[in-house]
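Exercise 4. Each item below gives a protein and its sequence. For each, produce the structure-token representation.

Item: Fructose-1,6-bisphosphatase class 1 (Spongiivirga citrea).
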Amino acid sequence: MTQKNQTLGEFIIENQSNFKYSSGELSRLINSIRLAGKVVNYEVNKAGLVDIIGAAGDTNIQGEDQQKLDVYANEKFIQAMKNRNIVCGIASEEEDDFITINSQDEQHQNKYVVLIDPLDGSSNIDVNVSVGTIFSVYRRVTPIGTPVQLEDFLQPGNRQVAAGYIIYGTSTMLVYTTGHGVNGFTLNPATGSYYLSHPEMKFPETGRIYSVNEGNYTHFPLGVKKYIKYCQEEGGDRPYTSRYIGSLVSDIHRNMIKGGIYMYPKSSKLADGKLRLLYECNPMAFIIEQAGGKASNGFGRIMDMNPTELHQRVPFFGGSKKMVEKAEEFMELHS
Ligand code: P6P
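Answer:
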């Protein structure tokens, strides 16, 4: 039972029973992400004022310039999840390889792994556009007490125990699921607390917004081109509206509230698309499905894909169920 305006802390305590097998670690993990989100939010909100914008002079494994705030956010989330005897490993978009975290307490062995995109859409920071943090949580599959292995991270999305995002927008929100629906909490900067502002979020079954970088149109597969044209033609509730922020969290958050589809297809330039399966597509897919939507790679369920590498990319179509199904129809027809 959710009561509007509960604090996140009250909500976690009240819903502790939902976290099967967990003696409070999962709650404490969500709590540590909440705290790190507040610290990152403070820096994101004043990024224009301090020399924290601009490339840190380094590039991540994706070959993308690391904005200083990317590096800062990565450090803060890793710090928040270490030394709490909850997590045995972390994989991050900003880290080439996964990080092993040893338990500090012989009597207790950490059993969760976290995959995180600490600041997604960071190229938007210096133009003052919303950015987000995305996280995904699994129970490890290798024996507890041994060092974490790559296979602990290469699990299909259907084995996630929690996933969520923080959107640093006109307000800062934490939206997450533990497999029992999706709830959104808004940060009140005056008190530093997150309040349950969007209980039991639901993806509208259909919508009139399509989100895709149409600059890549000529490079898309024929089925994607046909679906985009379908969205633009007169007929029924069409033409739809095109809305694309270039920040995955922001585009999906808006579409979850208003109804819509977000697409990052493969193209002749990017054979597997751009988005990463493990710390972008799977967590967003868990949220989308828990809210009643659909998340696909164009031909099958994103969360059923068996990962092969930490930073692998996949095509992504996520949002209102009927819109994703229609897009899949076009891709099936023209594959
Ligand atoms: P493009 C940000 O880099 C990101 O990973 C997502 O947040 C966003 O939706 C997408 O890439 C934007 O990519 O190629 O359209 O600029």
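Check: The mean pLDDT is 91.
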